[in-house]
Write a structure and sequence with these properties.
Elements (H helix, E strand, L loop, with lengths): L1 H6 L3 H25 L6 H22 L5 H14 L2 H4 L15 H33 L2 H24 L6 H4 L1 H13 L5 H29 L1
Helix pairs in contact: 2-6, 3-4, 3-6, 6-7, 7-10
Length: about 220
């Protein structure tokens, strides 16, 4: 596996993300040791979920030359299903508040470390899907699909944070999930929070994605 990652120039980015994840987990471990409280343990689970879309997109990149578009589609839909878990960690900033057991500055750094790592994972997997789409089709299609992925992912962040659905609920309890989504699609203006969260997150993610694309293009030049 490591050899395959190296062949596709993905070993260093993958190890860097693992290192970043280890740093995040270390911050949680120190907090637990210092306070004897397990409050932020859920961040480790959220970060694990955030890695799933990157693992899927990495597999797609390594197989895109051997797989036809039809064979790649199931992996894309699986990626899209789990993609919101990566930017979702940004919303964990809502858990930041002053607590007696440790300084708020520590909790802020802890949550930010998870949020930044999750955001980087989101962008790396987005770039993977962009490059695959560009290779299979063209640049315009790649940008169009990227915008759709970001908007859909931002809507997924809302579903996860405020409706409390998980990615696997599409299989476990699809009926209430589809009902809630359909209701908001049919009557969007009855749910201003849905529109607001989706627009704000889409704007943030699109801006960052464009910046990364420009920086990458400049590096290649």
């Amino acid at each position: 596996m490591l050899r395959k990652l190296q062949q596709h120039q993905r070993l260093i980015p993958f190890l860097t993300l693992i290192f970043a994840g280890a740093v995040c987990c270390s911050l949680v471990a120190f907090r637990i040791h210092h306070t004897d409280r397990f409050y932020f343990l859920f961040l480790i689970w959220n970060l694990f979920l955030a890695f799933i879309p990157y693992v899927i997109s990495t597999y797609m990149v390594m197989r895109q030359e051997k797989f036809s578009l039809i064979k790649l589609l199931p992996f894309y839909f699986a990626w899209l299903l789990f993609f919101p878990n990566a930017p979702y960690i940004l919303t964990d900033m809502l858990h930041l508040e002053a607590r007696d057991e440790i300084g708020i500055w520590y909790d802020m750094g802890l949550i930010l470390s998870f949020a930044i790592t999750g955001l980087m994972i989101a962008y790396l997997s987005l770039i993977d899907i962009f490059e695959i789409t560009k290779a299979k089709f063209n640049t315009i299609t790649a940008w169009t699909l990227s915008l759709f992925n970001i908007i859909a992912g931002s809507f997924g962040v809302y579903i996860g944070r405020y409706l409390r659905y998980n990615s696997w609920d599409l299989v476990v309890c699809p009926k209430p999930l589809f009902l809630d989504i359909a209701t908001r699609m049919i009557h969007p203006f009855d749910y201003p929070k849905t529109i607001g969260v989706t627009i704000i997150f889409s704007g943030i993610l699109i801006t960052g994605f464009i910046l990364l694309q420009q920086l990458t293009a400049r590096k290649e030049v």
